[in-house]
Amino acid sequence: xxxxxxxxxxxxxxxRLGLFLLVLLGLSLTMVLFFVKTRAxxxxxxxxxxxxxxxxxxxxxxxxxxERAVLANSDRIRPLSEERLGLQPITVAETxxxxxxxxxx
Length: 105
Known about the structure:
- By secondary structure, the chain is mostly helical.
- The protein has one domain.
- It contains 2 helices and no strands.
- The chain has helices at residues 9-71, 74-85.
- The model has no long low-confidence stretch (mean pLDDT 91).
């Protein structure tokens, strides 16, 4: 029978150092993975918050477009312009051609 191998003090120290470095590497990788996971969760939360803000702003834009359509309606503007500004629709007699307009230097 063969006798069991006996490690020398240098071999024993190098094995312990190797084991220590592997454990240290494992802990380091675990910490890095934890921080990356946390950052990813924060990024997802930020994306969800920004998407909610986008939906809220899109709804506000829809309301503003509808309000602009109501306010820009010519049936609403014509009576206001006649009543408050004294404006009347332009007639054909009041128009002229570009050739009739003299250019001033």
